[in-house]
């Protein structure tokens, strides 16, 4: 593999061990090592996943003398919210998080009439180097731990449950791994966090796997590993070009796995799971929005269990590219539909707070 396509994150100090990093058996083992009865692990998990509580001083069913010990060992603070920025009358909220080592990353909550979606980060930064994406241009700092990924969801779920988000109390219905990072480059921790989100309480949060979307630029071996998991999460492929010549430039990993290989892996996924694959396509003016590329994309996807999610390119500082003209966008849609390919145009939620697709940069100022 060429040096520019290695995906290993830089080695850094590991986050403190957290309950969400551990399987139910590992939690029992950890509690036993502390000299406590194994059932205390289930009590802790019931509070964290079931009641969205991280403060052991509030866990009155635990003996007072062990709360601090258990909290220090299994519920250490992982994430500190630096700030929340909102738009859409508060229905869209971007959160900047600081981890134990000062690393910054972001998540975005989007509240709709029929659902509440949280876009989470799987890495601090991203190593995929896509030139139209602010996150990719900042490079990769490190992978997030299972606990750090899961705690984004638990923390936001807590705010929702307590009515601290515009619109009143609510529950997260969907989680999308479309924040900072390439999820399948942090495969093990992402899959473990999906299990924490979807295992029944107190093993996890009890969400539906069908409400979770994992995106990727096309790491084919990792897609095949995901197929073997036999999970029901949705797979989203960030394609952005139907031809290798352009995709080599827009999505550098295409130099390793070409369009045909990526789509073949996507069809294996849909064939095994029965779930429709989402094909993400950022429309960039005069770059990838030509009618002939719409026809090529339509021919590639026709007859497959796929849906195209067109994304008007969101502006990023210093970018030479911009969103497509409205008439070109309409023609692109028309051409895809003529091939019988379902297509929607993504709602550009959060653009004015740099919280939309491709804009997350975790800037503190």
Automatic annotation (TrEMBL):
<dbReference type="InterPro" id="IPR058240">
    <property type="entry name" value="rSAM_sf"/>
</dbReference>
<feature type="active site" description="Proton acceptor">
    <location>
        <position position="106"/>
    </location>
</feature>
<dbReference type="GO" id="GO:0008168">
    <property type="term" value="F:methyltransferase activity"/>
</dbReference>
<feature type="binding site">
    <location>
        <position position="133"/>
    </location>
    <ligand>
        <name>[4Fe-4S] cluster</name>
    </ligand>
</feature>
<keyword id="KW-0949">S-adenosyl-L-methionine</keyword>
<dbReference type="InterPro" id="IPR004383">
    <property type="entry name" value="rRNA_lsu_MTrfase_RlmN/Cfr"/>
</dbReference>
<feature type="binding site">
    <location>
        <begin position="181"/>
        <end position="182"/>
    </location>
    <ligand>
        <name>S-adenosyl-L-methionine</name>
    </ligand>
</feature>
<dbReference type="InterPro" id="IPR013785">
    <property type="entry name" value="Aldolase_TIM"/>
</dbReference>
<comment type="function">
    <text>Specifically methylates position 2 of adenine 2503 in 23S rRNA and position 2 of adenine 37 in tRNAs.</text>
</comment>
<dbReference type="InterPro" id="IPR007197">
    <property type="entry name" value="rSAM"/>
</dbReference>
<feature type="binding site">
    <location>
        <position position="314"/>
    </location>
    <ligand>
        <name>S-adenosyl-L-methionine</name>
    </ligand>
</feature>
<feature type="region of interest" description="Disordered">
    <location>
        <begin position="1"/>
        <end position="20"/>
    </location>
</feature>
<comment type="similarity">
    <text>Belongs to the radical SAM superfamily. RlmN family.</text>
</comment>
<dbReference type="InterPro" id="IPR048641">
    <property type="entry name" value="RlmN_N"/>
</dbReference>
<dbReference type="GO" id="GO:0032259">
    <property type="term" value="P:methylation"/>
</dbReference>
<feature type="binding site">
    <location>
        <position position="215"/>
    </location>
    <ligand>
        <name>S-adenosyl-L-methionine</name>
    </ligand>
</feature>
<keyword id="KW-0411">Iron-sulfur</keyword>
<keyword id="KW-0489">Methyltransferase</keyword>
<feature type="active site" description="S-methylcysteine intermediate">
    <location>
        <position position="357"/>
    </location>
</feature>
<feature type="binding site">
    <location>
        <begin position="238"/>
        <end position="240"/>
    </location>
    <ligand>
        <name>S-adenosyl-L-methionine</name>
    </ligand>
</feature>
<keyword id="KW-0004">4Fe-4S</keyword>
<dbReference type="Pfam" id="PF21016">
    <property type="entry name" value="RlmN_N"/>
</dbReference>
<dbReference type="Pfam" id="PF04055">
    <property type="entry name" value="Radical_SAM"/>
</dbReference>
<keyword id="KW-0698">rRNA processing</keyword>
<keyword id="KW-0808">Transferase</keyword>
<keyword id="KW-0963">Cytoplasm</keyword>
<keyword id="KW-0408">Iron</keyword>
<dbReference type="InterPro" id="IPR006638">
    <property type="entry name" value="Elp3/MiaA/NifB-like_rSAM"/>
</dbReference>
<feature type="domain" description="Radical SAM core">
    <location>
        <begin position="112"/>
        <end position="352"/>
    </location>
</feature>
<feature type="binding site">
    <location>
        <position position="130"/>
    </location>
    <ligand>
        <name>[4Fe-4S] cluster</name>
    </ligand>
</feature>
<keyword id="KW-1015">Disulfide bond</keyword>
<dbReference type="InterPro" id="IPR027492">
    <property type="entry name" value="RNA_MTrfase_RlmN"/>
</dbReference>
<feature type="binding site">
    <location>
        <position position="126"/>
    </location>
    <ligand>
        <name>[4Fe-4S] cluster</name>
    </ligand>
</feature>
<dbReference type="InterPro" id="IPR040072">
    <property type="entry name" value="Methyltransferase_A"/>
</dbReference>
<keyword id="KW-0479">Metal-binding</keyword>
<keyword id="KW-0819">tRNA processing</keyword>
<protein>
    <recommendedName>
        <fullName>Probable dual-specificity RNA methyltransferase RlmN</fullName>
        <ecNumber>2.1.1.192</ecNumber>
    </recommendedName>
</protein>
